[in-house]
Design goal:
The chain is mainly alpha-helical and 189 residues long. The chain has four helices and no strands. Helix 3 runs antiparallel to helix 4 (141-183).
């Protein structure tokens, strides 16, 4: 019984203290304003999340387009390099082979070396066709772009190699021509 009285006395004392400090009052207007602000903040957060998702999707799309553009540039450059090879084969090779300063046993070697380069070029074109026309090994566009860039570099090397060989054979022809003129000159002594 004493404990009940002590609790009751404390409750009365605390209730007096609370009134002396003032009872908290709630302003419904502020509460409604706070709720509206929270709802608006939630809407803005949702819009920001949507914007971030949209921007992420657009970034991925741009990367895909960028990879496709890289592929197209690489394929175009490989095509140009192959055209250069064909022009060299049509013009320079026939001039070299038709030259009287190229020996018959050299004709086969010259033809074989140029044919090997052209064969490699054709194999590269077939490989590129496989990469672009099928879902080659489930590759991503970035992987395709990397392989095509590598093949583009190989085709540049082929053009350099065939240009170097052409120059070397032209130099040989020029040297032999000059040597022939020196050996067959008329002496007027």
């Amino acid at each position: 019984m004493k404990t009940k009285l002590v609790i009751l006395a404390m409750a009365i004392l605390f209730s007096f203290n609370m009134k002396a400090q003032g009872m908290p009052t709630y302003d419904n207007t502020n509460f409604i304003s706070l709720v509206k602000q929270l709802i608006e903040s939630g809407k803005q957060t949702a819009n920001i999340i949507k914007t971030v998702k949209f921007l992420k999707t657009q970034k991925e799309n741009i990367e895909k387009v960028n990879d496709v553009v890289k592929q197209l540039k690489a394929v175009r450059e490989i095509g140009r390099n192959n055209q250069r090879l064909i022009l060299v084969m049509q013009n320079d090779l026939s001039d070299i082979l038709d030259s009287p300063y190229i020996k018959p046993d050299e004709v086969a070697r010259v033809s074989e070396s140029f044919s090997a380069i052209v064969e490699n070029s054709l194999d590269t074109m077939d490989f590129i066709d496989q990469i672009l026309s099928s879902d080659y090994l489930k590759m991503s566009d970035a992987d395709r772009a990397d392989i095509l860039k590598e093949k583009e570099e190989e085709s540049k090397n082929m053009v350099s190699e065939i240009t170097l060989k052409t120059k070397r054979y032209r130099d040989i022809i020029s040297f032999r021509k000059m040597q022939d003129k020196i050996n067959n000159r008329e002496t007027g002594y």
